[in-house]
# Entry
Amino acid sequence: MLAALPQRAAFRRALGVGPGQRLIVVSSTWAPRSLFGGAAEPEADDLLPWLLSRLSAELPADEYRTVAVLHPNIWYGHGPGQVRAWLDNARRAGLDAIPPLDGWQQALIAADCVLGDHSSVTYYAASIGIPVVLGSFPQQDLDPLSPVAALGRTAPRLVRRGSLRAQIDQVIAAHDPGRYKELAEQTSSAPGESAALLRRLFYGLMELPEPDRHSALLDPLPLPPYLPARRTAPVRVLVGGIGSHPPEVSVVRYAVAGAGPGPAVCADSAHTVVDEETRETGRLGIADVVVRYAAGDDPRLGPPAAWTAEALDRYPYCGLAAYVDGPDRCVVRTRDGDLVRLSAAAALDGRADLCDPAAYASALHAWLASGRSLERALPGITVRTGATAHRVAVEPLAP
# Structure
């Protein structure tokens, strides 16, 4: 992990963390009083369901990305099917569960905050300078002289009665990267030397000489597969700040699986977006925007022009259909029959803007619903998500 710290930006992109987004990692060990197992206080037995529901209800989809790192014994003790069932609402709202053996180190390096317990994963996060907040920490279960117990006496605790978002933001804003320096120094007495020391030990146990022609080296942490957030739960979109000179729309999106529509936010208008692959198929008939994620040349669905036309026929109350065929682009068809490509301008380094293109489709829908014409949005529109401005090209396509 120490050797891979310079790869933080690449790991964040692999997890689909866009500009202005914060990556929140939920970490739990395997114990009755862990974050996943319950809590130290009897009145907080339902901490995990509360936490998972608040993540989607309080954290705007385009401003926060959430993943879970769970101890392998949670996966194999209960079974992957049971764990996925417990996480179902949160997963449909955009949370991804990192595989139990691979990828958790990269997620920690990429994180903006780790919400954890007395797991070694939480301790490692603190050791590399990541802000942590403890959702559960049974101090009585630990050796008081252990480094992990010392973390419990030092790190801030989650207050269930308070705003989850406010607490996360406060921990990040107030964090001093050197806060856990003394704890980090107890993680290893020989940082960077583990491969050589362990090989020497293993060969000694086998009573064999070490290879003298090969250095003791570890493979670097691999770059994980691209894993953007996917929300198959209905998404409530709050719209504000529509301006015409230049064209601009602000959107705040909340997934609503198993939770309310999110905290009260001042908005000029609101609409609902539903993924065509949602489990809540009844919501498709009343959605304002229907979205589909697929490659542009997918023979089952594409091309985008064909699917968007079919979608508007299937869902007569839908105002706009969006076919997301890339990490930074989509094709939309309006109820008036206009076919438009929306594509985000690349960053200065040439990399794609990783904001969910469905946010661009929502911005265009709100623009048109406000009575403004498509022509007034050409050749581009600014879509704001939180404090981030996304420059989006609006290109009419042939029918």
Observations:
- The mean pLDDT is 91.
- The first strand starts at residue 22 and ends at 28.
- The two ends are 51 Å apart (CA to CA).
